[in-house]
Amino acid sequence: MKQSLTLTLEDKEKIINICKALSSPIRLDVLNYLAKKPAIITDVAEEFGIPLSSAALYIRNLEAAGLIFTQTIPGSKGSQRLCGLQTNMFTVQIFPPSGDSPSECLYRESMPVGCYFDYRALPSCGMASSVQGELGYEDTLSIFTSPDRFKAQLIWLSIGFLEYRFSNGFLMANPVNRIRFSLEICSEALGYNNDWPSDITVSINGREIGILHSDGDYGDRPGKLNPSWWNPASTQYGLLRTVEVTSHGCYIDKNLISAETISSLGLLQAESIRLKLEVKENAEFCGGLNIFGEKFGDYPQDILMECYQD
Length: 310
Description:
Layout: E1 3-8, H1 12-21, H2 25-36, E2 39-40, H3 41-48, H4 52-64, E3 68-75, E4 78-85, E5 87-93, E6 107-111, E7 118-122, E8 126-128, E9 154-157, E10 159-167, H5 169-173, E11 178-186, E12 198-204, E13 207-214, E14 239-246, E15 250-252, E16 255-258, E17 272-279, E18 289-292, E19 303-308
Parallel strand pairs: 1-5
Antiparallel strand pairs: 2-4, 3-4, 6-19, 7-10, 8-9, 9-18, 10-17, 11-14, 11-18, 11-19, 12-13, 12-17, 14-15, 15-16
Helix pairs in contact: 1-4, 2-4, 3-4
């Protein structure tokens, strides 16, 4: 899933990496080539008549900037790296838009990751609490229907969904024009793989609003909150991602992804606000998901829903 990227001048490192990657004519040519179709590194080298080592270096530069993705695939002579376009547009917002100053949160609801209302989970899947062995072994499907699931601090699945239902009393009784969800999430690979893309479909009250694209299943360092017994060869942390529904549209990480609004989704009359996170079998990148609770990963929070009047 190609994505657009909006940056501000506070995103110095990201802007510098992108500008460095685009400062070379040959890297621009490689990016243009990959924009047309994904290719393996040997194809890139042959296309531009350059050594394989040079092609690999250009690919690393573009990947470090977040402009392309790479994925290991089997080949006739061992594994190969498939490369493709990840970001099709980026903008740098030099002046913040008027009215973009932080608003005071009017209502906040924290949802433990194990308190899902409905689910579907296919292996590899499982969950962990802060206590070693408390929630069984990996791929134990029965834990997903057990009351013990409410103790979960980390849930993972390869294919399927988790649906959470938040109370809607405050929204029905108060003027709200923005609902913000935030959660720590990443892909799900065997062990971990920082280059393991996944397209996670986000639905609000039964309507799909867009794709939350995860670049990888992160395990290159320990998660800041993980218990000491957690396997260092497993998933360690995710990224804090946001989903917002406003009176003007829906946003993922502040990027507009749908024209659906609070009104069109029927949130003003609904008994609950349903947030569904799904990895579909036919997704372009079917890379699973990990959702972190307040005692795993990097961020001391569960899934948060916040209501604002901007």
